[in-house]
Amino acid sequence: MAQTTISIRMDDALKKDFDNVCGELGISMSAAIIMLAKKMTRENRLPFEVSIDPFYSDENMARLRKSIAQMEATGGTVHEVNYDD
């Protein structure tokens, strides 16, 4: 099978961390990327969940707005947030 070369750009710290993890697993970065490509093409999907940070969920934002309003209403005093609301 013919081989080809790809080039990607990433943050230097990420590359170092990725290389360290691959080294701990006993594989090269190229082998890890090839494994990812094979799994994606075999399954026609990303092999992991991609999601938005739950901190920014509508529920949490509403809870934060309520907490801020409560704090402002009490002049910034300490209060408890009821997570059951």
What does this structure look like?
The protein is mainly α. The chain has two domains: 1-50, Arc Repressor Mutant (Orthogonal Bundle); 51-85, no CATH class. It is 53% helix and 0% strand. The chain has helices spanning 12-25, 29-43, 58-73. It is elongated and about 70 Å long. It starts with 11 loop residues before the first helix and ends in a 12-residue tail after the last helix.
Properties at a glance:
2 domains, Arc Repressor Mutant, 0% strand, 85 residues, 3 helices, 53% helix, mainly alpha
Share in helix:
40-55%
Sheet bearing the most strands, described? none
CATH architectural group of the largest domain: Orthogonal Bundle
Counting DSSP H or I runs of 4 or more residues, the number of helices is 3
Q: For the residues shown, what is the average pLDDT?
A: 88
Q: CATH class of the largest domain, please?
A: Mainly Alpha
Low-confidence stretches: none
**Strand tally:** 0
SS-based class: mainly alpha
- Element-by-element helix/strand order: HHH
Rg estimate, integer Å: 23 Å
How many domains make up the coordinates? 2
The end-to-end span amounts to: 60 Å
Strand content: under 5%
Which fold name fills CATH's third level, the topology of the largest domain? Arc Repressor Mutant
Overall, the morphology is elongated
Outline of this structure?
With 85 residues, this protein is an all-alpha fold.
Produce the secondary structure layout.
Blueprint: H1 12-25, H2 29-43, H3 58-73
